[in-house]
Amino acid sequence: MLWLILGMAIVTFLPRFLPMAFLTRWVMPERVKRGLDYIPIGILSSIVFPILFTSGGGKVEIQAQYLFAAIPVFVFAWKVRSLWGSVVLGMAIYWGLGFVL
Amino acid sequence: MDNHPFREGIKAALPIVLGYLPVGMAFGVLALKAGLSPFEVGLMSLLVYAGASQFIAVDMLSKGIVWFPIVLTTLLINLRHLLMSSTFSLYLKNTRLAVLGLISAQLTDESFALATSNTSKISNRPKYLLGLQMTSHIAWIAGSVGGALFGGLINHEGFGLPFALTALFICLLVLQVKSPIHLWVMGALGVFSIFLKGILPGNWYIFLSALVALGIGMVMNPKARNSKTQDCD
Questions:
Q1: Residue A32 sits in the same domain as residue A58
Q2: pLDDT tens digits for B152-178?
Q3: Which structural domain range is residue A8 located in?
Q4: Which residues of B fall within a CB distance of 8 Å from A1?
């Protein structure tokens, strides 16, 4: 088990470390910087939407409890821009939906 | 911005802590069933610290699969961190390599998304990142060991807890929409990733979507980058 954990630790660490180690020492062209600037929205879009619209197995199908809790959180986050508010509101609605759906 | 970036980072991590504790507990419960001791659960959360791959690893273990396929799967799942690590490098130009090592060991989807929601806070402020990520990491370890020890006693699926991280991601996604172009990118990649998830194994859809976003950013009009960052708390 120890070897498994160490093996997993190494292959997890390297992709996290190597780009940071090399790219911080490299004068990056403006174009590359612009590209890297879009990675957060790419990552977040691809995390959020599949949670709402696909089953665990990858089939396209609406996840009602997640989707109905997500819509008000989208609106709230857009208007109020509060992380805590979004998390608490989302949890409360999701919890409530659990009794209805 | 206060003068104690480390303390500021700790505070900023609290929404992640709320999300990590119950998910960590769920992991601890499953890992115990798959035959790990509470010590091994804690060690894995300390050294590997990657939610998705830890869940998949214990699932494979419980099916009797041994180490090589698990390590390979872990590598493939975590290749998406290549892109997050590249993005962080924009803001850590003057940071020592040892500190970069510590920051990268604790890089997760959640800490990355939170940190990049306001880049003025991470720009040459490695202590803020360390505070943010160490606090999140401790919550993950505490949650998973707690789950392994007391999993049966605490309800970690009540009170809407399974939705905490999703709500966090939604808010962080909204904060990334800094221009109409970002809105289009979000819509397009949202649809793209929904269909991609059904076709590709594991979470390659995340890696590929991030790669497409990188490409879009590179061909974009330079003016589009100078959008102002928005604060959030």
A1: no
A2: 788 888 889 999 999 999 999 999 998
A3: 1-37
A4: 36, 40
pLDDT digits (tens, 9 = 90+) for B14-60: 999 999 999 999 999 999 999 999 999 999 999 999 998 999 999 99
Position A46 in a domain? no
A-B CB pairs within 8 A amount to 300
Under the phi-then-psi rule, with left for phi > 0, alpha for psi from -120 to 50, and beta for the rest, what region is A54? Answer: beta
Cβ distance A39 to B87 less than 8 Å, yes or no, reads yes
Q: Residues B99, A11: contact at Cβ < 8 Å?
A: no
Q: What is the pTM of this model?
A: 0.89
Q: What is the ipTM of this complex?
A: 0.94
Q: Give the whole-angstrom CA distance, residue A84 versus residue A63.
A: 23
Do A22 and A57 lie in one domain? The reply is: no
Whether residue A68 sits in one domain with residue A27:
no
CB contact under 8 A, A16 and B85: yes
Amino acid of residue B81:
H
B8 to chain A, closest Cα gap in Å: 15
Chain A environment of B95 (Cβ under 8 Å)? 24
Name B196's Cβ contacts closer than 8 Å, sequence gap at least 6: A46, B204, B205, B208, B209
Total tally of structural domains belonging to chain A: 2
